[in-house]
Amino acid sequence: MARHCRICTHADREQIDRALLGSEGQIAIAARYGIAQSSVSRHLRLHLAPTIANRLGRYEDIDVERLRSWGTGLLEEALLGAVKARNAGDAVQHRAYLGEARKAVELVAKLAGVLDSQPQISVDARRQVAVLANLTEEELRKALAGAASEPAATLVIAPAPVPVIESVPVAR
C-alpha cells in the first residue's frame, strides 16, 4: 500500500511549502505544524523539489552546474547553521544542521558523479545472447563458478519448456 504524504494532505500545506522555501529549518517547521521531521523532509524531496524544478525549467535551463551550485549553497547554509547552533549550545539544532549538511554533501556528490545511490548495470542482450549461444553447458558452469563471489551458483539448463498438465481428480 502506497504511503500518503502528510504534508500534501495537510490543511496548512501552502504555509508549510512557503516555510520550506524560506530559511527556516525542517525541524522548526515540523514542530510548528505538529508533524514529523521525516514527513517534512520526504515532502520536500519527493514533492516540492520536483515541482519547483519543473516550474523553473519552464523559464530557464537547469543544468548540472546550476544544481551543483545550489547544492553547495545548501551545504554552506547548513554548516553555518551548525556553527551557530554549536556556539549557542543548542545540541539538538546542531545535530539537525549536521544532518542537513550530510544530505547536502550527498546531493553535491551525486551531482558531481562521485556517488551513485542506485548502481546501474547496462547489458547489451544481443551481445550476451550471441556470446552465450556459442558456449557449452560446461563452459557456462565454469564461467558462473568463477564469477560468483559466494559458492558457485546452480545453473539449470532446460532444453525446452515442459507443458503443464492439469491434474484430474480421481474418484475413490
Characterization of the model:
The chain is elongated and about 70 Å long. Helix 4 packs antiparallel against helix 5 (about 90-110). The chain has 7 helices and no strands. It has a domain at about 1-60. By secondary structure, the chain is an all-alpha fold. It has helices at about 15-20, 25-35, 35-60, 65-90, 90-110, 125-135, 135-145.
What is the H/E order? HHHHHHH
- Helix coverage percent: 55-70%
Rg over alpha carbons: 27 Å
So what's the overall shape?
Answer: elongated
Low-confidence stretches: 149-162
| Cα end-to-end separation | 45 Å
Structural class by secondary-structure content:
mainly alpha
Strand content: under 5%
Question: What composes the largest sheet?
Answer: none
Q: Provide the residue-averaged pLDDT.
A: 75
Q: Given the structure, what is the number of helices?
A: 7
Let me know the number of strands. 0
What tags apply to this protein structure?
172 residues, mainly alpha, 0% strand
Q: Summary?
A:
The chain is mostly helical.
What's the topology here?
Layout: H1 13-21, H2 26-33, H3 37-59, H4 64-88, H5 91-112, H6 125-133, H7 137-147
Helix pairs in contact: 2-3, 4-5
